[in-house]
Write a structure and sequence with these properties.
alpha/beta, TIM Barrel, about 350 residues
Length: about 350
């Protein structure tokens, strides 16, 4: 088994499976911080060199920073430098109308300090509402930080073509766009994928396993409703509603299980492989708190889906078009049920409440 890599720009290579960090943040249940940090080394040793986090994932940049510092101290800078960290910069919704470039640079400096590095490999930019303030202020500040050597590469997240194009028009080199993309959610295929292919913008895809719903755990399970221990599960349960009925979702799981059995891998590996094989996709982000699921995660590099597999999957997808509209369009509606579970001010208020929760 060899971990596949992708080159986003000349000389900048990442693993095609990225270790996600949202599951280590608040609202996802208890996390054994020491164990989570120690387990990061197992991913690095296995060849999964790329880690995803964000300024608003409470405590996660610090965890990865502790991991990098520990590897640097024990094994030297050459080993620590193998770790590639993709973070995000997400200014609070309440600050958008008055944010200054110095405010954005302060967030960058904080990420550098948390991650204990001299330069951020990739910063993925998001602006909650482009009708508020001027998102070009944020991108201009990031560009200035890049010119100062604080950032290597710039990307965006949760935007479709209409939100991203202005930055390319202004001359920014947008290396990547991180979007939700899975068998359950193919919104990116509508306009973003062909647009990105024509402009050398790489897709980094989260939600490939829908917070764990696309695993054997849920095969044959009754509909659980919406009472979950964390917002991640609520988020993806809502996506299943957009995909189709619970019965249609179960049919998809059964299909993936049959294909997985054929190739001697898990249904999750089939789901991830499907995403990695889509046009313009450079990597899939797989949430993992600890290393115990690492062997299953690595299976994706051993499986090759054949035309029969794709035909079987396509037959299910034809019955379930999934969420419609632009990338992250449902989630941007703060009055809709997808938007109401978001937290919009985590940069300055780590204990921010979801809308309507008091």
């Amino acid at each position: 088994m060899t971990v596949e890599t992708a080159e986003l720009r000349p000389g900048y290579h990442i693993s095609r499976v990225i270790k996600g960090g949202w599951q280590l943040a608040g609202d996802h249940g208890a996390v054994d911080r020491a164990a989570a940090i120690a387990d990061m080394e197992a991913f690095l040793e296995a060849g999964i060199t790329t880690f995803d986090c964000a300024d608003i994932y409470v405590g996660v940049e610090e965890m990865i920073g502790s991991f990098i510092a520990d590897v640097r101290a024990r094994r030297g800078s050459s080993m620590a430098d193998k770790v590639k960290v993709h973070t995000k910069l997400v200014p609070d919704l309440s600050l958008l109308e008055n944010i200054r470039e110095s405010d954005v640079e302060a967030i960058v400096d904080r990420s550098l300090k948390r991650l204990q590095v001299d330069r951020l490999d990739l910063v993925q930019f998001y602006w909650w509402d482009v009708s508020l303030g001027d998102p070009r202020v944020g991108m201009a500040a990031l560009k200035a930080c890049q010119e100062k050597g604080k950032i290597a590469h710039l990307g965006v997240t949760n935007w479709d073509v209409v939100e991203t194009q202005p930055f390319l028009d202004a001359g920014f080199d947008v290396v990547s766009t991180q979007v939700q993309y899975s068998l359950l959610d193919r919104r990116a295929e509508q306009t973003l994928v062909p647009w990105a292919a024509a402009r050398d913008v790489h897709l980094l895809c989260y939600g490939t396993l829908a917070g764990g719903f696309l695993t054997e755990t849920w095969l044959g399970a009754p509909d659980p409703g919406y009472a979950f221990e964390n917002r991640s599960l609520v988020k993806y349960r809502l996506i299943i509603d957009e995909f189709g009925s619970w019965e249609t979702f179960q049919a998809l799981l059964a299909t993936l299980k049959a294909i997985g059995d054929k190739h001697a891998v898990s249904l999750a590996s089939v789901a991830t492989r499907w995403v990695l094989d889509r046009p313009q996709v450079s990597a899939g982000i797989v949430g993992a708190r600890y290393a115990r699921h690492l062997p299953k995660t690595l299976e994706v590099f051993d499986v090759r889906l054949d035309p029969e597999d794709y035909a079987t999957i396509d037959a299910i997808l034809a019955k379930a078009p999934g969420p419609q509209g632009p990338v992250f369009g449902l989630e941007r509606d703060r009055n809709g049920r997808h938007g109401r579970i978001m937290k919009y001010n985590l940069n300055t208020k780590p204990d921010d409440k979801v809308l309507g929760s008091g």
